[in-house]
Amino acid sequence: MITSAFRSAVKNVLKMTPNVVFVLGGPGAGKGTICQKIFENFGYVHLSAGDLLREERNNPGSQFGELIENYIKEGKIVPVEITCGLLERAMETSGKDNFLIDGFPRNKDNLDGWNRTMANKVNLKFVLFFECPEEVCLQRCLKRGATSGRVDDNVESLKKRFNTYISETKPIIEHYANLNLVKTVDGSKSKDEVFNEVKSLFQTEGGDH
Questions:
Q1: Beta pairing, strands 19-25 & 98-102
Q2: Does 154 have pLDDT greater than 90?
Q3: Domains along the chain with CATH numbers
């Protein structure tokens, strides 16, 4: 007689370990645009930590919605365990095996939380780093802000976001660079040029799924 415990064990064995690529870079470096192209060409599911938090905040039935709302309202970073939990749930419910995680981990707290809760559950293939000068990022975001309606696409907010990126996210990129896991692309080029570079990386490093 096949027990439910045996079925569960078989299911866990058959379940593929998800492949993850972290996507990092300054605001306006082109992460979201290229992630969409990677999805279209390679099938990697694009997960944005920020988008998942906003969706959860707006979900009336969420046990974390009010907590997330309070953190965002006070300008604080949401506890990393919640963010990692949302990422894990999104991966499980997608039914897919290959993921781009955009804009995460942003700082040491994110990195430590990921290593505690998720690192042993996924295969981190590499970190895709969009290197782009502040002036280029600034101009792109201001241009985007003219039509996007994003309240943080203004000079004052962008300067703060870029400073946070330099002080908190760059050390994370350096951490992964020391592990030989960072693939750097020049984000200041045109979309087509950037994607051609990214495409060759995924064909050699990411696998063509």
A1: parallel
A2: no
A3: 18-47+98-201 (3.40.50.300)
